[in-house]
Amino acid sequence: MNTTPDTFDVAIIGGGAAGLAAAQALGRSRRSVVVIDAGEPRNAPAEGVHNFLTRDGLPPRELLALGRKEAEGYGVRFRDARASATRRNADGFGIELDDSTILAARRIILASGVSDTLPEVEGLEAYWGKNALHCPYCHGWEVRDQDIAVLDSPFAVHQALMFRQLSDRVTLYTAPEREFDPIEREKLEARGIRVVHREIIAVRGNDNHLSHVVFRDGVEQSVDALVVMPHFAAGVPALSGLGLEATAHPSGIGTYVATDEMGKTEIPGLWAAGNTRDPMAQVMMAAADGLRVGAMVNADLIQEETDAAVAALRAGAVAAIGQRS
């Protein structure tokens, strides 16, 4: 084990859009920064990033490679590893990596995002991020005017109404015993969204494209896309030693890390950015949040350094007075 840790102003756990944006902002402010990244971006299965101005359709890993190169130009260092444990030390935090290396940092930004747990539908994972999707802004244009099936969930009506903007062939599939609120039923009917009481238990297709849903009775139906709602979970095990815990999201979509408006957690010196604190944020929104949190962490360090400088100045003045007297 390396017991002489490298020391940084800021350690960023997670090298996605939020982490890279925070790193770049801090690097440009001449902070020493390390980004710890396990190389498992949430959007890796997607063919392209969308609604990211000037980069629409770029494969997710290409976007991250560009962001890393830019951040490296400002002195940001990268460790391709996983943070496994974190503890406090005299100057801030000690972060142990899965290769037993220890890094030290005055501040931490958690930008590791969230993980998606998919509904229990056989075969679904193979098409996740392709034409099995959940966000109309991320992938909706790509399935416009197609036959879109919506898997029932507490958010299915909302999703069906959103995807209806993109196609007039939207069908919500649900269990036979499912009853809808009269207002929900009226909205679906008014928008021409079919409701079929048949439960989807599996999907099938070719290597890249989901083509059929399979019902519990074995009957299959051809579709062009399937809309599902995953469960989101913020990953915080590496920071549990500091007392950080994930919080149930008010919407019921999963867990996140609660912060104030600027990204500060209840644990002094620990901040969060991007999907870690806003699971529904798209890539561009996560990047913007990373920039903001990076700037806030820099401001926090400036305040600490200014306070120390003022205290030293006052101490020097008192000492000078003592020498004269």
UniProtKB/TrEMBL annotation:
Domain FAD/NAD(P)-binding span(s) in chain numbering: 8-290
Keyword Oxidoreductase: yes
UniProt KW keywords: Flavoprotein, Oxidoreductase
Catalytic activity: [thioredoxin]-dithiol + NADP(+) = [thioredoxin]-disulfide + NADPH + H(+)
Domain of life: Bacteria
The protein, known as: Thioredoxin reductase
Xref: Pfam families: Pyr_redox_2 (PF07992)
Record carries keyword Oxidoreductase: yes
Organism encoding this protein: Paeniglutamicibacter sulfureus
